[in-house]
Amino acid sequence: MSSDTAKKTTKTVTTAEGRTFETKTTPLKPARVFLHLFLATLGVLWMVPLLVSLYASFRPFSETINKGFLSAPDSFSLENYRAALDQGDFIDKYWNTALILIPSLILTLFLASLIAFAASRFSWRFNIFFLVLFTAGNLLPQQIIVAPLFQAFRRIPLPEFMSNSGNLNGSNWAIILLHVGFQSGFCTFVLSNYMKLLPKELNEAAMVDGASLWTQYWHIIMPLTRPALAALATLEFAWIYNDFFWAVIFEQRGDDRPITSALSNLGGEFVTDTNVVSAASIFVIIPVMIVYFALQKHFIAGLTLGANKG
Would you kindly state where each structural domain of the chain is located, as residue ranges? Predict the structure, then answer.
């Protein structure tokens, strides 16, 4: 019997049905108490910007100017939210964001899963090389290739109904291609490591039954990678949704830009109403929070898979 086992105490628990069973509990150690306190403190500090923005969004701007950003409130109102809706044009911005985000997310996960399937389920000469190549693409700073991409996209024609400028530059497709190109590497790396944990006997049994490669991929491997896909979908949704860099450079008209540009439109020439900006920030963050809470269970399962392997 180890020393850790000896320190465990036995506790009898009775259920509502009258059944009794014994559970073993381990006394809390000082290191574990410190870890929980540290994580709780870190979580509170991480929430401070959101809580401050939420607090300021209900206060009049004049009160904040006169008394300070964190002063005691005299009144609360929804006027900042009304002003944010009027000035930010959020309905159209939400639609513009969806036109970019949904195709980018679907294409990124689909293409990354195809590459991960080939790299994890089959052994071939350039297997490791392509995985390293896709991963190395994430290390390239985006700002370095802005100028050549801008010139290249300007020379690729598109029909007028697909672009407001007659070429790839100035269309949603330019931003979609950039998101797919930059995000596929990370998704391929995560999915390939996830798929390697699945036994290859699944594919061998499917091949004996006459299943095609597409059947093995779509009906066998993809359902088993649902936690990893949910975790990646949550991360990619947040990253693509919060993008401001590519949208400002490659979307020429302000009316066609995604929702992140709505916050920049609320800034004044000399004075910015920070309380209205705070209210607009709450509008911007709502879709991300909805997606996270909807996929929270799968997100945590995908991140913790393999944590106890060794």
Answer: 96-265
